[in-house]
Amino acid sequence: MASDEVDGDISSTITTSGSVDACTTRTYTLTYSVSDAAGNSAELTRTIIVAVATIFTDNTQYDSNDSDRIEEGQITLYSVSGKTLTKLVDYAVEDGLLEYQQDTAKHEEICEQVVKISPASYVEKMNQLVIYVGDYNDSYSLYGSLAYVLPTSDDLSTWQYAIAIDLAYQVTFGETTSGLNGTIVHELGHILTLDSTQIDSFTSSEECSTYHLEEGCSRKGTYIYSFSPRFLG
After folding, report:
1. Residues of 41-57 as b/e, b for ≥16 C-beta within 10 angstroms?
2. What is the CA radius of gyration of the chain?
3. Residues 46, 28: contact at Cβ < 8 Å?
4. How far apart are alpha carbons 101 and 170 in whole angstroms?
5. 3-state secondary structure of 30
6. Are residues 146 and 210 in the same domain?
7. In terms of domains, do 184 and 150 share one?
């Protein structure tokens, strides 16, 4: 924001030079310039450093050799901001899964499809994407599944979206029974009914005066609150 004693708010005249590539490690310089009607000008320079970081969530470092993730069939974990993917970890996988892991174009296409279908207010809640395989090894715990969602915060305000890349491309995205589009809508339904606007995750079953789920206590006026008396008893 920029203001002038005579002209008032002149934020619309701010120009920016320079750019940042969040996927390329280096130091970038951005310069912001502004001038008023009298020709007086000001300039501000910011230095942006894009570096390889060690990622922690809930005090846990991501480990490419995480045996639980590998046994589930997970192959790659990303952080997500809109359509922008930032790889957090490639899990150690069998040779037969390297093609799926290295096909980042499909990873990006899946992310774009999730963003395309989901309302913008819910895209903001999705901060992780997991790419996994659902039809590769029947010993994997995720075998046979098309997708899933999990909260990534204790208050249910942010979520991880997971898509089985092998099953996503077995049929066209728009195929009615098992296509990716329908799968995304199905998983979105879980977030719609279980996010922080719907569920109070910090209220115990003893304290809950409505309907209590594994995730927490349904708030009054929410989907679960309306649904539970009729169908859940």
Report:
1. eeeeeeeeeeeeeeeeb
2. 23
3. no
4. 17
5. strand
6. no
7. yes
